[in-house]
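> forwarded from #structure-qc
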């Protein structure tokens, strides 16, 4: 027909249009006084869709659809008390929607802006369903703002957003699925004050591939903390509390730390590892970095069941006490754990002007006083036994000579007589 629009033969009050270049003209051509409630226009070709100009007809519609066309921009806004409940502008290559263009759609329940070139979501009321699939440049920051407004998204698993430079929860500018973004929001809500929290990785259950869990990483470094954060987000695996003033590791006993596998606590004031004795952390950690603290000794027996293949510990910069115990235990332990303690040859003795490495201290020099007794007592006993045997032999020889020759050999004949000698005559 001459008109670009025609009534739908099956649905009363519905109009279908194709190849439209002037919306008002196309609707007017097919109206003939009919009150339209639903309209669907395909292949609309306009550079800019000016809503207040086209509002003459579409403000009274319940459902408005502009699909599969070429529309670069939607400008101005609906007037107040506009009626549309459903608004579909999908697959039009739209790159910009005026921020308040849809703000006056008070009855809007469903909005489809999928498969366009949008990077942000326009302002809308709450309690509606939104479809943004297929917008490859959609920013996660805009999605989060919409989530806070209570907007629900259609097909969450197929909805992605793009991280940008200012949205620094993630390390790369990749597409983030909406479920992951929702979880990251919960992680942010539980994040300790002034710390930075982020998703670390997605885990799959091999027995149930639909079951997915996310782990978190928390960075509280350089905040001047005196102690560990009281609470961590659920499933926190990596914690960085380096460059603070923490003095104790007691917090690792808490339930909030039950999932921590990688701990970075470099450059603090920690003086002892005894707080970790008997804790689960000792047996489960994969990375334990406690460099440049104030440790003077390591209770090596604590790590008998840990520090296996895949577990690593870093101890550089701690001023170790190099005594006999260190020479016997710590040195040998470090040498036996070279593959797990990467900086084993960078651990030095406390107050040593020559910077002796713990792995180079000599047991013979540090444990000399103990060796004096244990090494020479056996020589002393052997000497006493030899002298006793020689004495018995000499006395026996003197007695034999006296009985056979009638005189005492030297030196027995030179010895003065004693009162008891008469008993032997």
């Amino acid at each position: 027909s001459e008109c670009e629009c025609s009534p739908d033969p099956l649905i009363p009050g519905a109009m279908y249009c194709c190849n439209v270049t002037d919306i008002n003209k196309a609707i007017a051509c097919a109206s003939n006084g009919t009150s339209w409630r639903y309209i669907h226009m395909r292949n609309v070709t306009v550079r800019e869709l000016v809503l207040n100009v086209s509002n003459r007809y579409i403000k009274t519609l319940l459902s408005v659809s502009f699909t599969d066309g070429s529309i670069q921009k939607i400008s101005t806004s609906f007037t107040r008390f506009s009626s549309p409940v459903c608004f579909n502008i999908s697959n039009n290559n739209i790159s910009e929607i005026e921020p308040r263009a849809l703000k006056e759609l008070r009855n809007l329940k469903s909005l489809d802006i999928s498969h366009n070139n949008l990077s942000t979501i326009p302002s809308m009321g709450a309690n509606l369903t939104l479809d943004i699939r297929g917008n490859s440049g959609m920013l996660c920051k805009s999605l989060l703002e919409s989530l806070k407004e209570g907007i629900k998204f259609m097909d969450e698993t197929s909805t992605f957003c793009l991280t940008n430079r200012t949205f620094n929860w993630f390390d790369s500018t990749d597409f983030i699925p909406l479920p992951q973004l929702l979880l990251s929001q919960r992680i942010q809500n539980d994040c300790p004050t002034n710390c930075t929290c982020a998703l670390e990785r997605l885990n799959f259950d091999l027995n149930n591939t639909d079951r997915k869990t996310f782990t978190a990483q928390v960075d509280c470094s350089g905040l001047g903390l005196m102690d560990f954060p009281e609470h961590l987000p659920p499933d926190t695996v990596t914690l960085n509390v380096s460059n603070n003033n923490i003095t104790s590791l007691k917090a690792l006993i808490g339930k909030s730390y039950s999932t921590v596998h990688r701990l970075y606590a470099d450059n603090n004031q920690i003086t002892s590892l005894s707080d970790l004795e008997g804790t689960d952390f000792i047996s489960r950690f994969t990375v334990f970095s406690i460099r440049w603290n104030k440790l003077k000794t390591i209770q090596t027996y604590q790590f008998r069941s840990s520090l296996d293949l895949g577990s690593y510990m870093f101890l550089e910069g701690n001023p170790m006490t190099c005594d006999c115990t260190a020479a016997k235990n710590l040195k040998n332990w470090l040498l036996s754990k070279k593959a797990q303690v990467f900086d084993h040859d960078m651990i030095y003795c406390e107050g040593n002007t020559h910077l002796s490495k713990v792995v180079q201290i000599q047991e013979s020099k540090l444990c000399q006083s103990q060796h004096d007794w244990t090494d020479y007592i056996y020589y002393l006993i052997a000497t006493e036994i030899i002298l006793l045997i020689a004495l018995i032999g000499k006395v026996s020889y003197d007695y034999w000579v006296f009985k056979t020759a009638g005189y005492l050999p030297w030196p027995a004949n030179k010895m003065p007589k004693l009162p008891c000698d008469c008993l032997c005559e």
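QC bot note: The longest helix spans residues 368-405. Residues 164-172 have pLDDT under 50 and may be disordered.
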